[in-house]
Amino acid sequence: MENFMDKLEKKFSAQDIIKANSQAEMAEAQRIKKEAEHYRKEIVELRKHAEDYSQQLEQLEELMEASRDYSEEFDRVLSKIDESDSKTHDVGVQIYRNVQAIVDKNREKIEEEIAEINKKMETVLDIVEYKNNAVGPLLIIIGLIALADLTFNVLTIFGII
């Protein structure tokens, strides 16, 4: 290796080596300067992007807060709708039961009236069998009047008349 160094010393003087070192250091300093300038530009751009991202993040947080508010309001509305549905169902059930009770009561009255008419008809038929045949038309008229009365009562009960 000394041989190599000796050859280099002969070929290049100390002044040349110092000059070359100096030039290499200057070139390295220039390269570092360019690199530092490049990094400064990137830092400036990163700061700009950081500000943009910060603004976007603030907007996103505002949107998320508004979304939470809307979600809470939506939940309150759904709760009210559920309460309303429950109350509507309860009222509907009450109305159904009331109507059913009225219909059952009226049905019982009608059945009693029909049973009473049947008894009267049987009585009239018995009388007709034992008596004169002239009572037949009278029986038919009475039956028709009783049937008309029954019909009138049924229509009145259901509120048609």
Give the helices and strands, then pairings.
Blueprint: H1 2-11, H2 14-130, H3 135-157
Helix pairs in contact: 2-3
Keywords:
161 residues, rod-shaped, single chain, mainly alpha
How would you describe the overall organization of this protein?
- Helix 2 packs antiparallel against helix 3.
- The model has no long low-confidence stretch (mean pLDDT 81).
- This protein has 161 residues and is mostly helical.
- The protein is built from three helices and no strands.
- 0% of the residues are buried.
- It has one domain.
- The protein is rod-shaped.
Count of alpha and pi helical runs:
3
User: What is the helix fraction of residues, given as a range?
Assistant: over 70%
Look at the helices and sheets and give the structural class: mainly alpha
Q: What kind of oligomer do you see?
A: single chain
Approximately what portion of the residues adopt beta-strand conformation?
Answer: under 5%
Mean pLDDT: 81
* Whole-number tally of structural domains: 1
Ranges with pLDDT <50 over ≥5 residues? Answer: none
Termini separation comes to 133 Å
Question: What is the 3D shape?
Answer: rod-shaped
Give the total of beta strands: 0
The radius of gyration computed from the alpha-carbon positions, rounded to a whole number of angstroms, is 56 Å
Question: Quick recap of the structure?
Answer:
The protein is an all-alpha fold and 161 residues long.
